[in-house]
Amino acid sequence: MSSAVPPPPQAQSPAAPHWASLNEATFVGGIRLLFWIYRVLGRTPFRLCLYPVVAYYWATKPLARESSLDYLRRLHAHKRLKGASVGREPGAWQSLQHLLAFADTILDKLLAMSGALGGEALRSFGEEGLLALRDQGRGAIIVTGHVGCMELCRISAERHRGVRLNVLVHTVHAERFNRLLQRLHPDSPVRLIQVTEISPATAIMLADKVAQGEYVAIAGDRVPVSHSTTVSATFLGAQARWPVGPYVLAALLKCPLYAMACVREHDAVHGEGYVLRVQRLAESVVLPRGRREEAMAGHAQDFATWLESVLVRSPMAWFNFFPFWRQGEQPPVMPEQ
Q: Which residues of the chain have pLDDT under 70?
């Protein structure tokens, strides 16, 4: 009596890949496709391709939609309290415009990475302090935020010889972006460095860069992926949690602390265009024993107040589409930019 041989097990469908595990060909290929659409067809077809995607995202992602509206209403109230002339309270249409502004910025990010935007596309205010540090061979920590198009800082770095900018990012796509940046613009003075936490080895590496007169930029508006210390500071009329990484780094490396953003602004003389705004927050950062949290909170408040002034001029430049004032309560889920 022969026994039946069981059939070989069927292969199971693989689980959907995490975004961080997508291969380079898929990741870079998507960016190249967007850039190709612009290069071949122009900006209007690019928008026609991108805007329906954003409109669908806005309609189907209530978290992003509600977070956008929350921010816009807080900014509206803040401007009203400051005595500015404001219209009606923002609603659904303004929220959609907000996400569309982010979509339009995607193209500017690609153009900035490729070197297709010239120096005439960028006006700057306050970068004299950083240039003075460059002339002295000194580096600095620069606090940035998820506002506007920070990739355009490349233009400022290129037109000032000797400026090197290292950008810390909390994403495994950093090295892939670096390779893409090398393909699009081999001589770029901007380098992305992927970090999940500031380890002793990372601190030593950054100390070497600052000692060589380079700048290190780190986002100051998102709580890190890993469980880390945060401090509270007022932003647009309410308390929010802020990371302490920029201030700890500046204290460890004994270097000045600056804030930087590159946003679209409109004025009667120049019309609409990108403006690079830089401000020194501290010549040196000292975190006294027993008062460390208080000192870090003070620096975070300085950054938050400066960020408010930037957003008053450019309200649609805020690209944190998650419950910002609740971050720190639970790990935030944030769209990559």
A: 1-32, 117-121, 170-190, 196-197, 225-227, 268, 328-337
What's the number of domains the chain is made of? 1
The DSSP code for 175 is H
The pLDDT tens digits for 270-289 are 778 899 999 999 999 999 99
Helices 24-41 and 43-60: crossing angle in degrees, nearest 10, is 130
Residue 2 within any structural domain of the chain: no
Rounded to whole angstroms, how far apart are CA atoms 143 and 316?
20
Position 331 scores a pLDDT of 43
Does a structural domain hold residue 337? no
Rounded to 5 degrees, what are φ and ψ at 69? -65, -35
Query: In the β-sheet with 215-219, what is the strand arrangement from edge to edge?
Result: 122-125, 271-282, 257-267, 140-144, 215-219, 165-169, 190-194
DSSP E strand boundaries for the chain? 122-125, 140-144, 165-169, 190-194, 215-219, 230-235, 238-243, 257-267, 271-282
Torsion over CA: 37, 39, 36, 34 (sign): negative
For residue 127 the two structure tokens come to 């970068």
3-class SS at 237?
coil
Which range marks the domain in which residue 26 is found?
A: 22-326
Task: List the CATH number of the domain containing 83.
Answer: 3.40.1130
pTM, full prediction:
0.82
Cβ-based burial of 316 (10 A; exposed 0-12, middle 13-18, buried ≥19): buried
Q: How high is the pLDDT of residue 175? A: 59
